[in-house]
Amino acid sequence: QLYLDRIARLNPDLNAYITVDAERSLAAAKAADARRAAGNAHALTGVPLAQKDIFCAEGWRTTCGSKMLETFVSPYDAHVVTRLEKDAGMVSLGKTNMDEFAMGSSNETSYYGPVQNPWDRSRVPGGSSGGSAAAVAARLAPIATGTDTGGSIRQPAALCNLTGLKPTYGVVSRWGMIAFASSLDQAGPMGKSAEDCALLLSAMAGFDPKDSTSLERPVEDYARDLEQPLAGLKIGLPKEFFADGMDADVAKAVDEAIAEYRKLGAEIVEVSLPNMKLSVPAYYVIAPAEASSNLSRFDGVRYGHRAAEYTDLTSLYKKSRAEGFGAEVKRRILIGTYVLSHGYYDAYYLQAQKVRRLIAQDFAAAFAQCDVILGPTSPDVAFRAGEKAADPVQMYLSDIYTIAVNLAGLPGMSLPCGFAQRDGKRLPVGLQLIGDYFSEARLLNVAHQYQ
Ligand code: GLN
User: Fold this and answer.
1) pLDDT digits (tens, 9 = 90+) for 51-67
2) Most C-beta atoms within 10 A of its C-beta, which of 87, 158, 174, 357?
3) Ligand 1 centroid distance, CA of 104 (Å)
4) Ligand 1 pocket, residue 149 CB under 6 Å
5) Which residue, judged by its Cα, is nearest atom 4 of ligand 1?
6) Please, what's the b/e burial string for 45-76 (b: 16 or more CB within 10 A of its CB; e: otherwise)?
7) Which CATH superfamily is domain 2-204 in?
8) Phi/psi at 346 (nearest 5 deg)?
9) What's the Cα-to-Cα distance from 287 to each of 41, 156, 325, 349, 408, rounded to whole Å?
């Protein structure tokens, strides 16, 4: 009730949630109480949760930030929803705002309007999980789910002073999570601390036969290493991260974090990721290619927006899609269709896939020299609403530090590392930690020791 009251008071401005259903949430809270009373509670039973509106949840409107799904009520639960709400007994407070189909870095492409950053409401919360980030930052939820295809958990976490983790690809099931770029998409936790994220991830992760890329591995307790001392830890600083393009205040905050890690007993080594600079161009070929294919299912026939007037089947498709998708989604569909088309496939898509392999090899070489890689999450603090909206290339470049992680399928996280002053306001800076495959518990340990 406390969170529902805060949502009722603050969400009309912040716009962090697209859908709230107080009655449903309170009923779930009552059921959680009953479960506690019966003595079969999970550690998270009854804990309120904000769910990114990319997860299908039975009986809940699930929009994915798009007009296309404005009236879509999911008939089934995503695996993540089953794990958190049914198995663990967490209480969903509602569905959070996001960039349309998770395409964006500022939450400005949402059909349901932009989200304000609680630290400075004239600035963006980041994206695409900006609604989840704003909800936790403004205490409209204690913790939230997000998804990360190219930075969408880590960058909004950085811009809103949260901790967020993108797991190794395949650790969390994608079943029921509306697909953007299937080979990159991965769900993860966003919370106030590494400890909170460890608890949520432990409840979210696990093999699911319904997702063909879900990995069959034993269930892990991601909180198990939180208290491990860091003595002997080798932290790699990729020289390409510290070249130009980083804001001076961000650089200063990251340097201070490095000094702190030295004090905690870590050894700092320089590493190199020579193909880093190719990650943004490769991503913006691969992600739109997969998106153009994934979004072909929205045709106005089975579900989603259907144009009121049409003459034949082709006109039904065309009009429904023209009306249902926003400008950024259309741009991605156009790029994706182009790079996959006969004659361009080898020149763009195949090249991008080769670059993707090179990037993964760069990381493998770096992890032969260090345990974790450290750098900034985002080149700057939260930017002003509208500042980059008209220039897609500027917007895409803000993903420079996060995207390579998804191309390689590695786990990565962002944690708070101080503030920069802008217009008399304090704006959070995010520190990024990247680990080798399945090193989530180690990353959470490294973050927790700093926090
Ligand atoms: N900003 C990136 C994009 O627009 C990443 C988004 C994401 O991770 N979902 O594609």
Assistant:
1) 999 999 999 999 999 99
2) 158
3) 5
4) yes
5) 104
6) bbbbbbbbbbbbbbebbbbbbbbbbeebebee
7) Amidase signature (AS) domain (3.90.1300.10)
8) -65, -40
9) 40, 19, 17, 10, 13
What are 73-117's pLDDT values in tens digits?
999 999 999 999 999 999 999 999 999 999 999 999 999 999 999
For residue 155 and ligand 1, the question of a CB distance below 6 A is answered with no
**Does residue 103's CB lie within 6 angstroms of at least one atom of ligand 1?**
yes
Q: Tell me how far the alpha carbon of residue 188 lies from the centroid of ligand 1, in angstroms.
A: 14
What separation in Å is there between the alpha carbon of 253 and the centre of ligand 1?
Answer: 25
Q: What's the whole-number mean pLDDT along residues 181-191?
A: 98
For residue range 315-358, what is the model confidence (pLDDT) as tens digits?
A: 999 999 999 999 999 999 999 999 999 889 999 999 999 999 99
106 lines ligand 1 (CB under 6 A): no
Q: What is the pLDDT of residues 429-444, one digit of tens each?
A: 999 999 999 999 999 9
- Whole-number mean pLDDT of the chain? 97
Domain ranges within the chain, ordered by starting residue: 2-204
